[in-house]
Every structure is written in C-alpha cells, then in structure tokens.
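Summary for the steering committee. The consortium agreed at its last meeting that each partner would contribute one worked example illustrating the joint modelling workflow. Our contribution is presented below. We chose a case with several input lines so that the handling of multiple components could be demonstrated. No manual editing was applied between input and output; the record is shown as generated.
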Amino acid sequence: MNILAIESSCDETAAAVVTNGREIRSNLVLSQIEEHAVYGGVVPEIASRRHVEAIVPLADAALKEAGLSKKEIDAVAVTYAPGLIGALLVGLNFAKSVALGLDVPLIPVHHLRGHIAANFLAFPELKPPFLCLMVSGGNTLLVDVRDYTDMVILGRTRDDAAGECFDKVARVLGYPYPGGKAIESLAKTGDPTAYPFPRANIQEAPLDMSFSGLKTAVVNLIHNAEQKGTKVDKAAVAASFQAAVRDMLIPRTAQALQQTGHSVLVAAGGVAANGVIREALKQMAQEMGRKLYLPPLALCGDNAAMIAAQGYYEYQAGHVADMTLNAYANMEIGKNDWTTSR
Ligand code: KG4
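What follows is the complete predicted structure of the assembly.
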C-alpha cells in the first residue's frame, strides 16, 4: 500500500511516500526556520502562507522522487492535529483535494503519533507494546503505546515543553530559534554542575513534569547578570540547564518503565536528537535491562514519512475520514478523535 502523506502542523511543509508503513520511497521537508528565526519563534500567519506556496510542488516532487504516478497512490494521510490551526488547514485541505481527485481514502493522523511512528521506519522489527518518551518543541509526554493506535498518557509536562525550554534558554543566551542544537553544542565545553538549576517534582503526580521553573531560573540568572553588568559562563549555563532537563526526564522514564513493565523503550520528537539525553537513556535502559530504540536524527524532527507510517496503521484500524474532516489545534494523543465538533 503506497501512502502519500502531508505534514504542515508548524513551520515545516512536508510530503512523503511510504509503502506498507515501513519503506520510505520519498521524504521531502521544506523548512521555514530561517524566515521565522528573525522573530525568535514561529509566526503562524507566515507559516500558513509558506505552506500554501510550497505544498503543491512539494507533493509533486515527493511523487516524482518515489517514482510513482498518481494512480499508484492508494491513500492520502494527513496531519490533522495538534498544531497551528492555520498551518494544519493548508495541508488538510490539500490532502482532501488529492484524496477526492484520486478517489482514495483520506487518513487523519495525529502529529505526535507520527513522531512515535518515525521509529517504525527506522526499525523494521519494532512493534507495540512499548513505552515512549516524547520530547518535542510543543510536547513532553510519557506514553504507554499499547498498540499502533491505542495509546495512554502516563505523564506529561504541566507547563512548557522541554523543546520550548531549550529554545527560550537559547534565545536569552543569544542564539536563534530553534536553539536546542546550539545549546547542545555550547554545553559541550561547559561544567554541568556549575549552576544548581531546579528540578521540579509534582508530588501528587510523580510522572508529570514541569519545566517553567527551570526556564525562569535560567532567564533570571542571565537578566540579573545583564543588569549588574557581570558576565555569566554561557557554556556552563547551557550544560547545567541541559543536565537539569535530563534529570527531569530520565527518572520519570525509568519509573514509567517499572510501572508498566514494558521491556521496550522508544524515544521520539526533536529533543530526542540531544546527545546528552540519548546517552542518559542508553545508560538507564542498559541498567534496567530494557531494549532502547532511538530514532535517527533525520527522523526526529517534523517530516511526512512518519505521518505516512502512522497513517498505514490508522488505516488498518479502519480510521478513515470523509470530506468533513477538520483540523484541531489541540488533541490528546490517546483521544485522536477526528469525528467530533465538525
Ligand atoms: O519534534 P520537533 O521537530 O517539532 C515539534 O513537533 O515540536 O522538535 C523541535 C524541538 C525544538 O524545540 C528544538 O530546539 C528541539 O526540538 N531540538 C533539540 C535538539 N535538536 C532539536 N533540543 C535539544 N537538543 C537538540 N540537539
């Protein structure tokens, strides 16, 4: 089954063709990052406009690279939630028109389920059930993946996502959006114990996380230094911050593994590209005797191949939408309900 997938939930326009949910035929991503960087974050209106300009030629190019004609496409999968609503609507309406024109099924895909499915593309043997640590720019979750389309959130951030925090810290340290990678590079020469940044605990929900206190602590440190005209050791700030994020993610992931008894741990999302977090996950999985899957860096960020991969399993589960399909800015990963509030 050849699925053409479209992803436009944020600042990347993406189109891909994947066969049987596992074999990438093409995977094209057009990033708008440079354009948004001057504003320090994604500007929704600009994102939507750029998606409109890019989507048609990009989908054509994805088909061409896959070496397939339109007639050989069996279904169209599209990210319908969560994300920037205007941006989502561009991809959604395009996908609807393609599905209608080709007379093939339209498969609604939850963006975060797609991030998890990126691992199916990289690891042919990987199958649910497993535990997933999802750390992206907009979300930080511990997900019990019971089956391809059956997921339950075990823990989540109560405020900022880990990636959002990396981006904010990068910004106050003078690096452009998105700053996760820059923080990681900067941290390489810094002392991770130099600044004792807070690691929040939520007593009544031990698997939940909170990153806003950490973010505020870093921002206050930099602003105070600026006001006093003193210098901070930027590399040490980056390293100490990164260590605090790691220390918030790893013990909770370990606890969730204990709680569920899962023998397999999977990471997903842009922050899963971080070397320090990857190393800590490897060590923890080894100590606990669990198998760990880390998505290749190229599949950690937003792309459409992951949407096609998840789309394949949504289709197997009978999840097909009609032309009334809407986009949703918010949607819980376990709920994934495209039939409500039309
Ligand atoms: O999953 P993703 O591409 O987009 C969302 O769907 O949210 O994640 C983007 C996030 C950004 O916040 C970016 O700064 C962060 O992932 N990121 C990193 C690294 N590479 C990307 N954070 C820490 N270390 C990295 N190496």
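The radius of gyration is 20 Å. The CA atoms of residues 171 and 299 lie 25 Å apart.
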